[in-house]
Amino acid sequence: MRAFATSDLKPRRPYSLARLAIVTAGLIAALGFVTAAMLFASYQDALREQQVTLRNVAVAFAAQTAGVSQAIEGASQGAARMLLARPATPQATTLDDTQVQAAHPYLLRLVLFDAAGRLAGSVTPGTSSLDMPSFPAPPTGAIARRITVSDVDRVTGRAVLNCMHPVRDRAGRLAGTVVAQVDSRRFERLYNLVELGPGGSVTLLHRDGTMLVRGPGYPAGIGRSFLDTPLFREQLPRASRGAFQAKSPIDGSVGLYGYDVVEGADLVIITGMKRDVALAGWYGRLWTALAFYLLLSAVLVLLAWRVARDTRRQYRLVDMVSASEARLAKRFDYLSSIVNAIGAPVWVLDGARRIVLANDAFARLVGRPRDTLPGLEERAVFDGADSDRERRYEQVLAHGTSLDAAGSVRDGSGEARTVIQLTSRLTSEDGKAHLVNVLTDITERERAEARLAWLAEFDPVSGLPNQLQFWRLLQARIAAAAGRELAVVTLMLDRLHEIVDLLGHEAGNRALRQVAELLREACGDTAVAAHVRGAEFAVMHDAAGGRQAVERFATELHALMSGPLRLDGRDFYLGPRLGLALFPHDGQNADELHRNAQGAASGAGIELEQAVRFFSASAHTELGRRLTIEAHLRRALERGELRLVYQPKVTVQDQRVVGFEALLRWTSPELGAVSPVEFIPIAERTGLITPIGAWVLEEACRQMGEWNTRLGRPVRVAVNLAPCQLYQKSLLDTVRRCLDQYRIERGCLELEITESALMSREEEVDVLMHDIRALGVDLAIDDFGTGYSSLAYLKRFPVSRLKVDRAFVRDLGRDEDSAAIALSIVNLARGLKLKVVAEGVETETQLAVLRGMACDEYQGFLFSKPLEREAVLPLLESVRA
Length: 881
Known about the structure:
Blueprint: H1 2-9, H2 17-85, E1 92-94, E2 107-114, E3 119-124, E4 146-150, E5 160-168, E6 174-183, H3 184-191, E7 201-206, E8 211-215, H4 230-238, E9 241-247, E10 254-262, E11 267-274, H5 275-278, H6 280-329, H7 331-341, E12 346-349, E13 355-358, H8 360-366, H9 378-381, H10 387-399, E14 403-410, E15 416-427, E16 433-441, H11 443-455, H12 467-481, E17 486-493, H13 496-503, H14 505-523, E18 527-533, E19 536-542, H15 547-562, E20 565-567, E21 570-572, E22 576-583, H16 590-601, E23 605-609, E24 612-615, H17 617-639, E25 642-651, E26 657-668, E27 672-674, H18 676-686, H19 689-711, E28 717-721, H20 723-726, H21 731-741, E29 749-754, H22 755-758, H23 762-774, E30 778-784, H24 792-796, E31 801-804, H25 806-809, H26 816-831, E32 835-839, H27 844-852, E33 857-859, H28 869-880
Parallel strand pairs: 1-3, 22-24, 26-28, 28-29, 29-30, 30-31, 31-32, 32-33
Antiparallel strand pairs: 2-3, 2-6, 4-5, 5-6, 7-8, 7-11, 9-10, 10-11, 12-13, 12-16, 14-15, 15-16, 17-19, 17-22, 18-19, 20-21, 23-24, 25-26, 25-33, 26-27
Helix pairs in contact: 1-6, 2-6, 13-14, 14-15, 17-18, 19-21
């Protein structure tokens, strides 16, 4: 009841602070909208007002100009009467006719021409201090009334307006022409009387767009056509009088304009004013309105802030009183809410170990509704008493300290939970001692820690020990071996990735689990299997039975893994490879043994049965040698350690040198001279042959260009192409560039290609070889007869030479089979109209056999070893001599 009364008496807020802020913002926004609307309307009024003013000024000037035009017309008519009344005498005459008086301030001179265009006389209305303008060009033929501009002063802008009027006799025939020359300065002074602000102007234009007069003066525009402006394109076709807004054709600024057509003349008056000048007064009203708006907004914000502050103070006091009453009325409920907010189970016991208070977490732990727990004994919800727990309770009550202890309890579902219970003493309002218990459930943490410990030593997919655990077990077994032999077997599954590619990663994981089961079955109690990584496994096997027992185990394991693996209704073959290393012969520690077993599985070993290999120290040494050569070869090109030597090619019949083959040599500062048999296969396997081959081609062409220049005749050189070079898209461009750069003649460069390179990507190679042949480069098949033994490409590809491999040449004269093969190649080449080159000729017997076969050319030590580039020219000169 007390809580109800407090809540009922608490005053309600008439409005919230957010609503007050919204109302204030709305008033400011409405004020801003009204201010903006008024400013916009004022803006439109200011523009209209200025446009009306400009139009009225234009109308006034048009009326003034019309009067002057009529006066000039009257003066011209008087001069015409003089022309008709007397014979033409080209002399000046003063005209005092009253019709000229109105035009007198503007007229400089009236010039009379007869019908033939001859000067008939001139009439000067009074005297003038201005320089007389030159006579205008005499009109020819029938003319209409028109106005032209002459004698323009481009400094002051003064010009002479020539108003031409035709004169006709009573029969209507053309009797002559009267030209009234008008001074533009008078119009300009008149137009300057109107103040239109900076950039403002009054302009007189002809209807054909020509500027006649402008005030203030604009010398560059007098006589210039402005026909392509909004005035003539848009305004005049719609109305002869009006106002508009447009960009100035003179300076590009936006301005307001008024215009009017001069009555009775082909003239237009246009008055203009810059828009910024026209809106100068409106800008003043704008800043005043903005200042007023900002001031009024600030006042509204200040008032809203004062109201909000007073309201907050008032209701803060009310809230404090209400909160104090609520705390007094709901202290127990407040405490229960705090306890329930705790995620850990909390319960309070009285001296009889009955539950006084419990939170929701404790209710969930014991599996009972929270409102049924007060009054129950603790042992009733925990299924029996716990003597250790009771001793802790007594100790806490006796000494008033807090104690915690780890233990196990069963939750409402009967599952055992590992917990830490903290117990503290609490004195209630009646002075009795109560026990406050807080329970921390560490079951999941212990499980996670156990899981992490397991993952640290076992592979989560296969369930086998991982590499770290395998090394630990292997090192422990080595330490306990006491000289006994121990075998490490590495198993690599080359085709396991096919399962992942076809069925996905989950299928790959299932395959790994099946492999793990097979390994457990094969190992039994005598070996330990581990999953090292990916498709690699390792087995530690006791080699007490000797090498034969290990071989037998490895062979059986290989046979087991070579069988089909059934997965998703399909049979997969994993392609196992096994490598073996024995302790202590092949390694003294776990890392060394496992590494050597991996090397044996990768091929650096002695084959036992197909893919089962023992580690070989010699093969390991050879691998180290290959890696050392590779490391130095990667820097050989940039260090300039590579060079070319040149093997002469000689005709078999008359021993004439017909060319050379460029051969690559490498001398390393660390390794010395390295045989091409060693480093070229490494370069091909690692991809280094691509930049090296490009350098060989470039260097051979450069050397050929130098020899051609010094000898005055071409020298033929053959360059070997590796298969990977043949597949480079830039090969054709490289060959073309070398030929052009070093001026190599057609037929001097020959590219030698192996059979294996021709048989891959036949379509691409066919196109490339024809393109190379079109550059004038010869093509030869190197090591013919040792490749695919397919002769179809000899007809398809544009080759010009076959090179008989040294394996067939070596046994000529001793082996009839080699001679038969060589003779077959020569006869085949003869039938296809190809030349034959024999490689590796070292004896006179071999040369005699080749001569008997009618072989074309040969190369080998019999004639000369490969020559350094400095020895090539002396050889050619000696042979020529």
